[in-house]
Records
---
Amino acid sequence: MRESRTPGRLSAGRISWFVLPTAVLVFAGASSPWMAQRVPRFTFPTVAAAGAALIVLSFVNSLVQLVRRRRVEGHLRFFPVVVNVVALVFLVLLPLTHLVRAVTPSGDGAPRIHAGFGDWLGSEGYPRMSPHRGVDVAGRMGADVLAAADGRVTVARDNRDLCGWIVVIDHDPYGLRTVYCHFSEVAVRVGDNVKRGQRIGAVGTSGQRAWPGFEHVHLELQSGRNINAIEDPLPRIVGCFDDTKVYPADRLVLTYPVKCSGSASEGGDDVVLTAGLANSTFTS
């Protein structure tokens, strides 16, 4: 009777030896810009897809073993099934739903939000170590990034962290500032006054590198100079930028930092600062 169970245990063990390192590798790639920027873009999506297939196989195997033990031993062992269900939910189903949502166009033409404020899941649908500080607004690679409101540029540099290339715009007199991350190029300098809808750079994958299909602008809203005094920018977003509209001046309202489907906005022809330039080019 022991020999009849051995092949099943060995099969599950082999699968686990592949699943665990795969999960660790995907998590490391999602949380380490140093690692993510040094491998081809399709490396971690491919590893994640292979890991998802193994998890599904492991889940099916655990169900087969559950039924087999019930017939042979007369009792059930739910722990392997529970472990596989958890892995299936967090490493297969949630990323799959994010993928479906990413490739499905929105009905109103507004850009997709890959990850919201306070979310514990990243843009690709995998668990995060901390709540999301802003919103990830979907945008095509190389598309224009637009200022969400009038203001003055106070930071424009390569941050060399999860944010990557960053632009910060102070919005006086409201005591608030918007933070934009993951540029492929920056089109403004510190001290520039920018208008709502003005081009300030291009969508990229610097910093925490987005997977293909999940390119986005990370948008934060901070109060004053305290980087931890953050709020959800989404309630302040009143829609896509429209140069024919008059926006309120008594409070800070934001527009999406990318162009919406079928919309057009005017961008500036400011100097372009690309990732090839030295960090000393910028001041803050």
Note: The first strand starts at residue 113 and ends at 115.
---
Amino acid sequence: MPAFREGWKRVSRHASTAASAHARIPDERQNTAGAVAGGRSLVSPDIRPEPRGVRGAPSAVTPLVSPLANASAGASPRNEVRPLDLAWVNEIRVNLSAAERRVATLPGRRTVKKDAQAAWLLKAVSCIDLTTLSGDDTRERVRRLCAKAKSPVRPDILAALGFADRRLATGAVCVYHRFVATAVEALRDSRVPVAAVSTGFPAGLVPHDVKLKEIEASLRDGAGEIDIVITREHVLTGNWRALYDEMRDFRAACGPAHVKAILATGDLKTLRNVARASLVCMMAGADFIKTSTGKEGVNATPLVTLIMLRMIRAYQERTGFKVGYKPAGGISTAKDVLTYQFLMKEELGRPWLEPELFRIGASSLLADIERQLEHHVTGRYSAFNRHAAG
């Protein structure tokens, strides 16, 4: 039996030990990012995610099932449109210094090595929305990207890790509307869904009726997921009713297709705006909240991620619905993605390590993960260009 398979079993056996060890780790969540507002913390301290021990690895690399398929199988109920609660929105506060301290201490307290690291990285592969959103995209590039999505890690590496008999694919392929039909055709023999960026991506400044027509066109071409961009003006001016109405219309236009709300956090100026926009979009029915288009000056960061995850947790505690999270833009190394995985598990729990609730918008990340896995197997780093994604 390959050494990695044995290590995987040891990780599984030690998962309960790791969870027990977590009980001895001070819980910093009550001290960070949640300032008291209206006599109540941003996140209630009475609710806890399941025990977490980061040294344990995800239990298995499961074949990808799209969020839509999982929802229909009863894995977790889909988020529903709820009335806009402006009192809840307006009471949100963010303790900036505490949030920064929480994020700054994470790398020193959480790390995984060797077999456990390889396991976490394999799990990360299954959550990647493999993306190409360039002005020089072509149909042939999209076809190559889809081929990589269906077989993201070289078979010889998987075999050396003891995973030759496992099916591994990325979470989705994300493209412009123009290439949705091409991607759907290229992925026809797989279970990898196609995600289309929409609603005037990346600026989102086209007329509202045009945005809805673009969603409908992508659905007709076969997209199973729609990544929409919100109108940032609504957030910057505090027009939460307009943001809610816009997001609610997008959700209705998407029908059974899952919708990811791109907040473009780099344009929203403050973390309070990020938190409030996250909450409003979830109230309006967003299945995922997503950081960025990848085109802003500042894209996904651990600090913004912490704030958005706290809002997801607060929303689940009050409504019972789980909402997914997608960081995008600037996540290009295996080390980067491990940080986001650790935050997901610590803040929200084990279910948010699966593609049903966690996606990573990236293009070059997959190449670095494959390099790290090859190094784990052979002890040598290969050239980056040997792991091109498209």
Note: The CA atoms of residues 291 and 327 lie 5 Å apart.
